[in-house]
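Protocol step 4 of 6: structure prediction from sequence.
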Amino acid sequence: FLEVNMYAALEVHTTNTIRAGWHAVQAFSTYLQQYITKTANESDKNWNFPKLHMSVHIFNNIEAKGVTHNYNTKPNEKMHGSLKESYLMCTNFRDIAPQILCINHWQVIAESLCRNISNFDKYQLQNVDYVLDEDNSLVDDLVILNDSPHVKLRSRQAPQTFESLENAHKSDSAFTNFLLVIQLPLPGGKSV
């Protein structure tokens, strides 16, 4: 393996180094097969895994893509960090595959929603007329020039006091002593 690794790690290859690398891979494969057959009765290890098999194709890849110094698998190592965090923080450590898939699904949907909202905001900023209200202050809401629907998280009504609300609904018994019934907490823990 050390010889295969040495030839694979070279920063410059010639036909001679690639040929020598192929011979090292063949020798490694032969010795590995001998080891597997000798230890088959003692160990139930499965030697059929991708990383081991990749050594068979390493010099094909070098000829096709260039030296291994030019490409690397380490940048993708952190790709599964969120799944690891989900496993540790959000599962019961039993039958984890459906739990991780559900959490990953939620993450993908949340990212998609954020991206769509961000794209929508950028699109709206291209079509905004800055409007001044009666007192010449800038209106907070974006004005839509087209007919696309828009959700505004605010009331359409002007702000009003509880007193004016009670006075407007004097005939409705639900609004009698309205402030005493709802007991809204104020900052500091006091209620209205």
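Step 5 (inspection) to follow. Confidence is low (pLDDT under 50) at residues 136-146.
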